[in-house]
Amino acid sequence: MKPAKKSKSLEPVSFSITSAPKSLKNDLAGRQRRYLISMIIRTLCFLLTVALPSPYRWFALAGAMVLPYIAVVIANAGRETILPGANILRKEPRGIE
């Protein structure tokens, strides 16, 4: 009789977590922090609009008007659905075979 061979299917499978995304809680906290910093800078721009003399006040006012758009775009830049390294463009066309 031959000795029984060990089955390789019973060995535990290990997974790499190096490419795992940040947790949703950490990601959300980071985006909220970036948004808060942008809004603090916007508030400072409004205060500088009042405090600065005429030529400089317009730059501060422009910053206060543009920063909300930039802050929202930066805050929403998270939790990408496309994984890095994913093959987005297929080289072979799809068709009926």
SSE succession:
HH
Point out poorly predicted stretches.
none
Distance between the termini: 50 Å
Strand count, sense and closure of the main sheet?
none
Care to describe what's here?
- This protein is mainly α.
- The chain has a domain of 52 residues.
- It has two helices and no strands.
- Helix 1 packs antiparallel against helix 2.
- The longest helix is centred in the middle third of the chain and has 28 residues.
- The protein is elongated and about 75 Å long.
Topology:
Layout: H1 24-51, H2 54-76
Helix pairs in contact: 1-2
Q: Which terms would index this structure?
A:
single chain; mainly alpha
Give a short synopsis of this structure:
This protein has 97 residues and is an all-alpha fold.
